Amino acid sequence: MSQNTYATTLDNGKGVRHGVVSELSAFLTIKPGKADALREALVRLHDRLRKAPWEYIRKIGVHDMRHVIYENDTRLLWATEFDTDWDPYIDDALALIGVDSFADWLQHTVGWDAVDHSSSEAIKRYVQSAQVSATCYYQAVPT
Prior knowledge:
The protein has 143 residues and is of the alpha+beta class. It has one domain (11-130): Alpha-Beta Plaits (2-Layer Sandwich), CATH 3.30.70. The protein is 38% helix and 22% strand. Strand 1 and strand 2 (16-18) form a beta hairpin.
């Protein structure tokens, strides 16, 4: 049996790529008292993703996405994996899932109020300001 070797490199965002799959890890601060509203907004986002036409999900290239609220409802981890580079992933997600869907949950994070919500570049800068490159990243079944 042959074994493929996939390099692990930085993608064009701050995430790490293994083969053709990139990861995004962003750590955001939740506005005081907004954790429950954030949970509700995240449920709406994930419901929308689950109901989205498969063509949208395939175009975005998303493998998985998770949101974790931690540190006594003060911090949020947004972790996702996707098949494309950073720019097309975020651009396609904003276009296909909708800026409003992202604003619905991001509005509960510190710093969002200063973002130009009509600009995908401003939204990407906001996400990248909270993004951290993974120390190590391994995709068990690279595509």
